Amino acid sequence: MGAHARRHPGPTDQAWAVPERERACPLCRLAGSEGGGVSGRDLSDTAELLRASPAFAALCQVSARLGADPLQVQGPGGNTSLKRDGVMWIKASGTWLADATDSDVMVPVDLDSLIQAVAAGEDSAERPVEHAIAAANRRGLRPSIETAVHAVLSHPVVLHTHCVATIAVALRQDAAEVVAECLGDLGAVFVPYVQPGLDLAHAIQQRIGPETRLIVLGNHGLVAAGADAADAEALLRTASARLDRRPAAGDAPHPDLEVRLAGSDYVAADAPRLHALARDPDCLEVMAAGSYYPDHVVFLGPRVACAGSEETAPTAAARLAETGNAPPPLLIFPGLGAAIRQDASASTRALAACLGEVAARLDPGAPCRALTTDEEAALMGWEAEAYRRKLDAARDG
Predict the structure, then answer these.
(1) Residue 28 belongs to a domain with what CATH number?
(2) Of the given ranges (277-281, 324-328, 344-348), which has the lowest mean pLDDT?
(3) Backbone angles phi, psi at 341, to 5 degrees
(4) Which residue, of 171, 362, 365, 386, has the fewest CB within 10 Å?
(5) Whether the predicted model's global pTM rises above the 0.85 cut
């Protein structure tokens, strides 16, 4: 059976069928307008009760587990949420899921007002902090930039990761067909790339049904939903495993890389599959042709910077500076290996390693779809992403 051959559902697959209770009036239920709804706009007590619940503790445990897995989440990427009685707790923008059991990384949101804003296309849906429940937001954090996406999904728990196996499929031009083949029996829906935020939430709404629990986001990642955190995680792990190809082996940098880095601000990257990418000319040609997912653009900059055949790190950085570019955080030396700036943040290092992991899972015969120049520019100029970069710098500082 091939890496992307369709599988027939087994007993564990069938266990993820949507319960009957989840099929009725999804938006009404999660907004709290069915039984158990909360009247009035003071939801702080409700938010605190949910924070103290076993369901919230379970969400934090799953969040931390996913956040500690670099094949699922890199740095501050990904987000998770829990809804009940008109309140949604969601990961704060710029925080790390890996910290979910050790620090306060979740923000409570007034779900009813947010859903109304999304439906009306209001600007506040792009600024979810305006829907945060301030009295229960102890650290004054901003909700995730993808809060609207979580709000339009009806299930109590939603998990979103930047799974490398998923990205390696989601950047393909035939991604929709691969998703249908590998995940069709799980009811998966493919949504072509749309910038994260309100536009993505609307794009998802246009494609899903009330029973949709699994979404592959083009050039982006994976979304799994469920009745509880364990349910959603099981579905996410199964989807990830089905999409994963046997990754290419890692490699050590060529000894000559150190010569090219001498006297520079760069060191060899601690990422064997990134070195393998640098030493694979066919794969490097594909990956250097553009940027393929948002967090690459946000933390590594557009595209992949490559040194010339005889360039050292200082001369390559000087050449790039002449075109108005800052020294790239990641610099590829074709045939030799990959280098990263010594002052690179933990998030930057995580996204550099992610590039190698995605490249190692590419189907060499599948055409890929890179982000357009306009899509890259929209991410680089987005205030919400500038905020994440600011928090990233503060974390390492």
Answers:
(1) 3.40.225.10
(2) 324-328
(3) -65, 145
(4) 365
(5) yes
